[in-house]
Design brief:
The chain has seven helices and three strands; from the N terminus they run ααααβααβαβ. The protein starts with a helix and ends with a strand. With 125 residues, the chain is α+β, with helices and mostly antiparallel strands.
Length: 125
C-alpha cells in the first residue's frame, strides 16, 4: 500500500493540540528521537548560529529623487505601478517614497533599473 501524504496531512489538520502532542511523543518513543533536541541549536545564540543570515525575499523600491528628467520618471512610475498620471506625479513630487512594496528580487531589480534609466535615484530596502 502506498503512502497517501494528502490524506495524512488532512488527518493532521483535523487533530487537536493534545492529539498532536501525543503523536509527537509516540514518534519520539518509536524512533528514539526528540523534537526538542532539533530546536535547541536554533535557539542558542552566538557562534555559527549568528553567522547564518536569512536571505531577504521581499524588497521595497524607494524613489529617492526624480533627477533632471522628471517626466520620464513619472512615465516609469506609471508603468511600474499602474497609477494614473496625477497619482504618479504626486508620488514623484513627494520623493522619497516607496514605488513598489513587497516585490520579489527580480521585480524589484527590474523596477529599479527602469527608474534609474529614466534618470531617478532609487534604493532597494
Amino acid at each position: 500500500m502506498a503512502f497517501d501524504k494528502d490524506a495524512f496531512l488532512t488527518v493532521l489538520d483535523s487533530m487537536t493540540v493534545l492529539e498532536l502532542n501525543d503523536l509527537v511523543k509516540a514518534i519520539e518513543e518509536k524512533f528514539g528521537v526528540s523534537a526538542a533536541s532539533m530546536a535547541a541549536p536554533a535557539a542558542g545564540g552566538g557562534g555559527a548560529g549568528a553567522a547564518v543570515v536569512e536571505e531577504k525575499t521581499e524588497f521595497n523600491v524607494v524613489l529617492l529623487e526624480a533627477g533632471a528628467q522628471k517626466v520620464q520618471v513619472i512615465k516609469a512610475v506609471r508603468e511600474i505601478t499602474g497609477l494614473g498620471l496625477k497619482e504618479a506625479k504626486d508620488l514623484v513630487d513627494g520623493a522619497p517614497k516607496n514605488v513598489k512594496e513587497g516585490a520579489n528580487k527580480a521585480d524589484a531589480d527590474a523596477a529599479k533599473k527602469k527608474l534609474e534609466d529614466a534618470g531617478a535615484k532609487v534604493e532597494l530596502k
